[in-house]
Amino acid sequence: MSQPIELRAAPHQHSGRSVPVIMRNVVYSMLPICAFSVWQYGLSALALLLTVTAACLLTERLLNRASAQPNTLNDWSAAITGILLALTLPPAFPLWMGVVSGFVAIAIGKALFGGLGYNVFNPALVGRAFVQAAFPVAITTWVPAFATQRFSELVPSTLTAPLMMPPDVTAWIKQQSVDAFTGATPLARWKFENVAVSANDLLSGAATASTGETSAILILLCGLYLAARKFMDWRIPVAVLASAAATAWLFQLYDPAHYPSPLFVLLSGGLVLGAVFMATDMATSPVTPLGVWIYGAVIGVVTMMIRYFGGLTEGVMYAILLGNALTPFIDQFTQPRVFGAQKDEKP
Amino acid sequence: MLFHFHGGIHPDEHKLESSERPSARAPLPSRLIVPLQQHIGAKTKAIVQAGDKVLKGQMLARADGMVSAAVHAPTSGTVLSVDLHAVPHPSGLPDLCVTIEPDGEERWIEHAPLDYRAMPRAELLAKLQGAGIVGLGGATFPTHVKLSINPAQTVETLVLNGAECEPWITTDDRLMRERAAEIVQGIEILRYLVNPAETLVGIEDNKPQAIAAMRQACTGTDIQIITVPTLYPTGGEKQLIKVLTGKEVPSGVRPLNVGVSCSNVATAYAIHRLVNHGEPMISRLITVTGSVRTPQNFEVLIGTPVEELVKFAGGALPGSNGFILGGPMMGLHVSNGQLPVVKATNCIIVESAQLFPPPPAAMPCIRCTRCVDVCPAELQPQELHWFAKSTNFGKAQEYNLFDCIECGACNYVCPSHIPLVQYFRFAKSEIWAREREKRAADAARERHEFRLLRIEREKQEKAEKLAQKEKAALAAKAAAAVAPATDSAPAAVQPAPAAAESAADGATQSRIQAAIDRAKEQAAASKEKDTDILTPQQLAEMAEIEARRADIREIAHADAKQQQEQQ
User: Fold this and answer.
1) N or C: which end of chain B has fewer CB within 10 A?
2) Pairs across A and B, CB distance < 8 A
3) For residue B261, is it within any domain?
């Protein structure tokens, strides 16, 4: 009777799957994409990936210290944010700007809301949105893939001194024996020049794009791994891609001369990367069975609306951020039936 | 055809440790500690005192109220005390227990089989209550209540729960392998009581020998043995009913409402022991497993201290650090080996840090929805966790908190190691406490309002009476004044007014006197009514009324608990 009360409550067994395990596997699944981008863009891409990830980890650690919290680096979530953010930036993005975006992603996108699980928006996209607004020129300056000297030298813009404008890279690009580099992404070329880049170019990774968004097939394979091991909700990418393709198909029916094919829409820009790795962020996506489909469909359709009617060439980022913002409402209005309740009865 | 429920998990089974050894009868322990409350429902009333000699099977405490079941002496001996003792309860609070020192003679009280077919149903149910038969699946809901069917209800399906879905536990497995024929006899009695159209025994497919034994014992009967896939928590009452019949028992009602009656196979066996042998519930089969030398099933007398039982199984291995009473998913962790086993105890797992490592610190919820995927009640555990954590109980109820059966599946898969079940229990008990408070406040308010009403009414009545009397007096006066005027006899004129006056005076006097007397009387009466001065008799009466009210509350409470009955 005088024994101290011990709090150990059922269940006493656990499946063994923990948050670090999930996060680590997401990091693993992104490594092939990173490797492919380094092969495409060389040292600049590698430097960008390492710098942005390091910036995210460092910010996380600093903020842990500042708020007297335990170290949260070992949950691997800051690493995901860092890699994901780097994959969405142009390969020759100045490193100091990459550091800024990493800091904003973790500090404003995540820590400000209370850290892991409490963030409303995908932190990587918050970081990306910030630099999109802050450095509009740098973030639309592209370099060609498979440049001849990519493994021997950095693109000049990569090493821009902090707080300085990046130098012009056209001279550097001319030195590289790359044929027909236009300096515009397939989406921009469609929008402003009405040129549809062939699916072949899109698939081979030769198209101009952000660091990690060129190989749709590789991204899908990595996503398949995550879905198979139940580290990711497969319904979200399926909903995003299907709704985007359906929208594209409808527009093409309406005006085949102007609007591109659904295949072009799926393969160009960051749609696949966003659908597989960004929209599926657990903390910022809905949890109900119906809600997941609505969320995915909203992102797919909004992406297409921005691409077709907005001022920007790419809309995935804002579409996902909008989806994140809608998540609590979607969850609230799509509560499923509970066991034993009648079908027509609202839970 | 089988149905399936949403979610579920596949934890490591750990059944083989104990399932392959035949069960044994545990020797008499040095003393037996028999708690008076071993069921869901009203407390029992002790009918023995320290120093009494008791016989095996003799009643120690009688059922008090409808949802209550008697408690019996597991062996013959001397009652050492009827006192508070630590019991296996999540609260950790001690409860009344009868401690018996066995005399080693195992002398039975007179008992005889019942001729149940010659017995009215109500009488047989009363016998079950008197013999302390409760559900042995884990919730220990009194069986006679569960089998009480009002005439409007018909039972289409009688479900016997032999799923035993919790890891480590093998009592039902061994029981079905070793005593299938007796179980079937118990099922026949259940069939007599509820008169079902069909009888289904659900057994998980990880117990092939039990299935074979039961099949054999059921040949020639209408009882069907159904093999169900191994999936935790198939042994949950609602889950098994869904799997076998496709019917979902709605929130807050009993299976009887959808025409199903569900009992555990071990309960059927206990009913057989009572009806065909006259034995009340004084022992049960218990798995002793985990970090012990020889994991095994034992036929154990209720009240045997956990420590002694573990010794019978060869003793705990080095590095043991406590016990789990029940299974690892829903069981109760205790560190005190002095606790007795009770009717609800189906398993004792000796813990070690190796078998059950302490959970790491909880991390924030990342909304991965693994809990949603596995929840058999189709709830949103991650939302409920938020509401419980923020004590937003209204919202928690809106999200069907009370449909949670506390199976622990969400907790098992949670990658953030959040003690979800603990949060849900906390929220439930807080809501219950608030409702109790609210009921008490409501009752007090009603009493107060009624009192105000009564005072007002009495005042009004008094005023009316007074008004009437004054009216009567006025009328009398008027009559007296009019009378002389109408009288024509002059001789009578003179004395008449005087007489009338004196008569009126006298009436006033006597009226005042009467009023004073009444006031005195009332003062005296009200003083006696004062609740500060109560006779012992009145106090006893009040206590009885309070107890009756408590019973009603207990029944409501028990109903809620019964919903969560689990294998």
Assistant:
1) N
2) 140
3) yes
Closest of A286, A306, A174 to residue A236, by C-alpha: A286
Shortest CB distance from B421 goes to which of A9, A287, A288? Answer: A9
Which of A5, A6, A13 should we substitute to test contact with B (largest number of B Cβ atoms within 10 Å)?
Answer: A13
Whether residue A344 lies inside any domain: the answer is: no
Start-to-end CA distance of chain A, whole Å, equals 44
Residues 6 or more apart whose CB falls under 8 angstroms from that of A36 comprise A205, A212, A214, A215, A218
Q: State how far residue A226 is from chain B, nearest Cα, in angstroms.
A: 13
Tell me how far CA of residue A305 lies from CA of A175, A216, B136, in angstroms: 38, 21, 62
Question: Does residue B353 sit at the A interface (CB-CB below 8 Å)?
Answer: no
The edge-to-edge listing of strands for the beta sheet with B198-204 is B223-228, B198-204, B157-162, B260-264
Domain that holds residue A31: 18-141+143-182
A340 CB neighbours in chain B (<8 A) are 238, 248-251, 403
Chain A positions touching B86 (Cβ under 8 A) are 1, 3
Q: Is residue B76 part of a domain?
A: no
- The one-digit pLDDT tens for each residue of chain B (567 residues) are 889 999 999 999 999 999 999 999 999 999 999 999 999 888 888 899 899 999 999 999 999 888 999 999 999 999 999 999 999 988 888 899 999 999 999 999 999 999 988 888 889 999 999 999 999 987 889 999 989 888 788 899 999 999 999 999 999 999 999 999 999 999 999 999 999 999 999 999 999 999 999 999 999 899 999 999 999 999 999 999 999 999 999 988 889 989 999 999 999 999 999 999 999 999 999 999 999 999 999 999 999 999 999 999 999 999 888 999 999 999 999 988 899 999 999 999 999 989 998 888 899 999 998 999 999 999 999 999 999 999 999 999 999 999 999 999 999 999 999 999 999 999 999 999 999 999 999 999 999 999 999 999 999 999 999 999 999 999 888 888 776 655 554 444 455 555 555 666 777 788 888 888 888 877 766 655 545 556 667 777 888 888 877 777 777 677 766 766 654
* Cross-chain Cβ contact B399/A335 below 8 Å: yes
Closest chain A residue by Cα to residue B353:
A12
Are A1 and B94 within 8 A, CB to CB? yes
- Domain boundary pick from B483, B509, B526: B483
Q: Is residue A40 part of a domain?
A: yes
| CB-nearest partner of A18 from B376, B382, B417 | B417
Q: Which chain B residue lies closest to A286 (C-alpha atoms)? A: B367
**B167 vs A: CB within 8 A:** yes
| B268 and B415 inside one domain | no
User: Looking at the structure, do residues B158 and B130 belong to the same domain, yes or no?
Assistant: yes
Residue A178, SS3 per DSSP: coil
Residue B241's closest chain A neighbor by CA?
A: A340
CB A95 within 8 A of CB A159: yes
Query: Is B557 in the A-facing interface, judged by CB distances under 8 Å?
Result: no
Q: Is B6 on the interface with A (CB under 8 A)?
A: yes
Query: B155 CB contacts (<8 Å, ≥6 apart)?
Result: B149, B194, B195, B196, B197, B256, B259, B260, B261
Q: What whole-number distance in Å separates Cα of residue B488 and Cα of residue A269?
A: 128
Distance CA B144, CA B153 (A): 16
Find the CB nearest B324 among A12, A230, A336. Answer: A12
Q: Do B413 and A17 touch (CB under 8 A)?
A: yes
Query: Which positions 394-413 of B are in contact with A (Cβ < 8 Å)?
Result: 399-400, 403, 406, 408, 411-413
Question: Can you give the residue range of the structural domain that contains B269?
Answer: 16-23+118-352
Residue A123: CB partners within 8 Å, gap ≥ 6? Answer: A81, A85, A105, A106, A109, A110
Dig out the tokens for B232 from the structure: 């935790």
